[in-house]
Write a structure and sequence with these properties.
Blueprint lengths: L1 H18 L1 H4 L15 H6 L5 E8 L2 E13 L2 E12 L5 E7 L8 H9 L3 E5 L28 H18 L3 E11 L1 H12 L5 E5 L10 H4 L9 H8 L15 E6 L7 H10 L4 E6 L8 H15 L7 E2 L3 E5 L2 E9 L4 E10 L11 E4 L1 E3 L2 E5 L7 E9 L4 E3 L3 E3 L26 H9 L7 E4 L11 E5 L1 E4 L10 E9 L3 E11 L2 E11 L4 E7 L7 E8 L5 E11 L1
Length: 562
């Protein structure tokens, strides 16, 4: 075995010498166990054949349209189109590859943004059908490894990114020792995957995408438990194309930035991926956010790159949450440290056991800070619950701990009659400006609904929702299996009958409750009892329907455990 490993090492060194920059950083791989899917030396040995097809300069930023060769898939030649931007006249710059959300067609928006931040930046057309790259692989159609992972569409997307790193290495504008990768959604998936696959990547920064997807994702389990993905299928995925698989043996820094309720990539998967990563790692988790981030969190995605590629001040670090008994109370504690001044700390808490990750509600409890330690007294609970700590610096950057499951009996908190004190519509139910902006940011705002500012048509606060014929409002968040009650107030300029529907899908099965109400010039309260089933996946939305031409106002929507 020793002789074989030495032979592999010397063969790697010889290939690196003969083939140049693409392999120069790889000889250490030869001594490791061979990757079950990606033969890096073989992939990177194919000729790159880069060329620039168009170049223009604007405001000191050069943007090129480029092509390079990725692979020969049998008789099929796969070439990659990309935008490449860099500050004019600069050499030896840090660089990153941006992977588009949904693997959308390459955009120079992100490469120009990178160049303005002092980077050389690349954004590729993945080899998808109808794109400027060739190949035509249906990469985003499913999350599958197949019997032969090298035939899976995801594999060919990864090969394209391996050669994208080689392209950056080939450019004099780029410092080959400072190349990172970032991306959103499917782009975050590939960022996490490639951070483990490619040792030339010095930092990864992922919006939403994660690995350990055998533990939870909407492609497989969006309709509830799926017998197709049995233990054998999940293990096959985990050990081939799952993005987390290689992170345990890679010390590359990586950060994840996500909403706690992300529809596609569930917290169970992200927590295991974070646990496996052996290098410096970071989490930003926004409670009650789905597949969207605040502008500050967007900026933090790139700030993580700046730390590791441009020597920006290090991010703060936080320890794991610990639950301890302090006299008569139980508290959650975590530590923090780092160069960035901390402005606030909080604990997010969500009732219910594993599951319902998309629709569970997260309470935010302010934390005390003393000498680098944060603490929050935990409430009694009839159910298991999850908690996660965080500190926020003066720039608004959030540093989150991994989530921790709390057994109330073991923590001295079990109280069968304890009330769950939250409102599952509190993020948006008052239709105040911040709530409306939140819904817009996560693409949950119905364009048929506008905001009314006439005080006569506002039940509380400054705004109400103005509904013309029909308005749909979601998410309505909840603890699975617990009885809740929806309440809301409606009003109409002239008397009209309004239908109020609370409907959702639970492990793929629809469930709805509705009521009719006579709305008129005076505010009328409505109430609908509803118990969300105890399922793996669930979603719930409120729909208000009025006759054509009617105008109805809605305010103070609440969904509270009974």
């Amino acid at each position: 075995m020793i002789i074989n490993l030495m032979a592999l090492r010397w063969r790697g060194l010889l290939l690196a010498f003969l083939l140049g920059s693409s392999l120069a950083g790889l000889p250490a791989l030869a001594a490791a166990e061979p990757d079950p899917v990606f033969d890096l030396q073989k992939i990177l040995a194919t000729p790159l054949q880069p060329r620039t097809t168009k170049s223009e300069e604007k405001d000191g930023i050069v943007t090129e349209e480029v092509m390079f060769h990725a692979e020969m898939d049998g008789e099929k030649r796969v070439d990659i189109f990309a935008y490449f931007s860099h500050p004019a006249g600069k050499r030896g710059l840090p660089a990153f590859i941006w992977n588009q959300g949904g693997l959308g067609r390459a955009s120079s928006y992100w490469t120009v943004l990178g160049a303005k931040r002092g980077y050389a930046a690349l954004c590729i057309d993945f080899p998808l059908p109808g794109y400027r790259s060739t190949g035509g692989y249906p990469i985003v159609s499913s999350l599958e490894a197949g019997a032969d992972p090298q035939r899976a569409p995801i594999y060919h997307g990864a090969v394209a990114l391996l050669k994208a790193v080689s392209f950056l290495e080939s450019r004099t504008e780029v410092d080959r020792n400072r190349i990172g990768m970032c991306g959103s959604s499917w782009g975050g998936f590939f960022t996490t995957l490639m951070t483990g696959v490619d040792p030339r990547i010095k930092v990864g920064s992922a919006m939403f995408g994660t690995g350990s997807l055998q533990l939870g994702n909407s492609w497989w389990f969006g309709g509830g438990p799926n017998p197709k993905y049995d233990a054998a299928a999940r293990e096959h995925w985990r050990t081939t194309l799952d993005p987390a698989f290689r992170l345990a043996s890679r010390a590359t820094p990586i950060g994840w930035f996500t909403g706690a309720n992300d529809h596609f990539y569930w917290m169970s998967a992200l927590m295991e991926t974070h646990r496996l990563a052996s290098g410096p790692k970071h989490l930003t988790i926004l409670p009650n956010w789905n597949h969207g981030l605040t502008p500050t969190a967007d900026e933090q995605v790139f700030a993580w790159l700046d730390v590791h590629l441009q020597s920006a001040p290090a991010f703060n670090t936080v320890s794991a949450v610990r639950v301890v008994r302090r006299g008569a109370v139980t508290v959650a504690e975590w530590d923090f440290s780092g160069p960035r001044a901390v402005a606030a700390a909080d604990l997010i808490l969500s009732h219910g056991d594993d599951g319902n990750w998309v629709s569970r509600f997260w309470q935010t409890l302010p934390a005390r800070r003393s000498g680098g330690v944060c603490s929050v007294e935990l409430p009694p609970s009839p159910l298991p619950f999850y908690v996660g700590g965080a500190v926020t610096d003066r720039q608004g950057f959030r540093y989150s701990t991994p989530l921790l499951r709390v057994d109330p009996a073991a923590a001295g908190l079990l109280q069968p009659g304890a009330k769950l004190a939250y409102d599952g519509c509190s993020v948006w139910g008052g239709f105040e400006p911040a709530g409306v902006e939140h819904l817009k940011a996560v693409a949950f705002w119905d364009n048929a609904v506008t905001v009314n500012t006439d005080a006569a048509y506002v039940k509380a606060g400054q705004q109400s929702a103005l509904i013309k014929t029909k308005g749909k409002f979601h998410p309505v968040q909840f603890t699975a299996g617990v009885p809740h009650r929806l309440t809301a107030w409606v009003k109409a300029a002239i008397e009209t009958e309004v239908k109020i529907t609370l409907a959702g899908t639970f492990d793929g099965k629809p469930l709805a409750r509705e009521t009719l109400v006579k709305a008129g010039p005076a505010w009328v309260e409505i109430a609908i009892p509803f118990t969300p089933p105890a399922t793996l996946t669930g979603s719930l939305a409120l729909t208000v329907t009025a006759p054509t031409g009617a105008v109805v106002y809605l305010d103070e929507v609440r969904f509270v455990p009974e």
